[in-house]
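Much of what follows relies on a compact textual record of a protein's fold. Each token is a code from a learned vocabulary of local backbone shapes. The record below shows the convention in full.
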Amino acid sequence: MTGVEPQVSVVIPTRHRPELLLDRAVRTALAQTLRDLEVIVVVDGPDPATVEALATVTDPRLRVVALPRNVGPSEARNVGVRHARAPWVALLDDDDEWAPAKLERQLEAARCSSLRHPIVVCRYDLPTAQGARQEPARFPRPDEPVGDYLMAREHWFSPNLTLMSTVLFAERALFEKMPFRSSVPRHEDWDWLIWATSVPGAGVVGVPDVLATYHFHEVRPHLGTSVNWRTSLSWASDLRSQGLLSDRAYVGFVVFHVAHFAALEGNTAALRETALAVLGARPRPFELLRFAATWLLPQARRRQGREALERVLTWLGLRRGGRGRRELSLK
């Protein structure tokens, strides 16, 4: 480590993916235009191949924390935060990438924010089989609960709005005050955002530039542990019971995220359980229709319809917005 105190600590949890880690996360973190940083790679459990690969990196700003046992991505991030020296922390998944100016832009936005605890996010490229999309379509509005932003829909065809760890940038003190909950095996990014924004003075600040690439659709295992839909439903129900998730967000989560996996199970118990969850939280008509369609229409038919609609809306958006629209959204 150099003698210069870092302004930002980058925390990257990893496990058994040395090639992706070095080619994407580590490479793009060390290539930032903000030079006063440290990159903390937390190797989540015994993984000699990854430790050996990291030993080939000569940049003194890289720090490796090798854990003796697997603790999961949430606790691995907490470990990285505890080792951080900088006042600001940025999270990065080992299979994702950053644009060179990401940290510089986020640090500038954080320092200019009027919030006591700004959580700075950015837009990102989302590669898909149909081509790359640039997300999210918008950031949370002032006073909009982050749960509503992430889960609720204004209508059937509202765009999916997702923020994940790769775009999160906040004070180390906030991550220490509100660590990732290691008991949450899935949706841990959303869980952290919901809890963190409950801290007085905390809120989301959006940088409109596309500054990351989120490789979600690649066919390979992800760091997060896969869990069944009942675990996801239980997680959302728990947040709702604690007043951290509105009925609107809860219904949106069940209809647009849980019902699909429950329908794949294809039995009356799954239908009954998800239907009771939806009906018990005052759904709107389009949410009831979407829930019914999820159970009645085959998955392939739904996918075909969604892809066709996205093509039409994209074409209409480009035709309607022209150059000004593209510049406004910074796509």
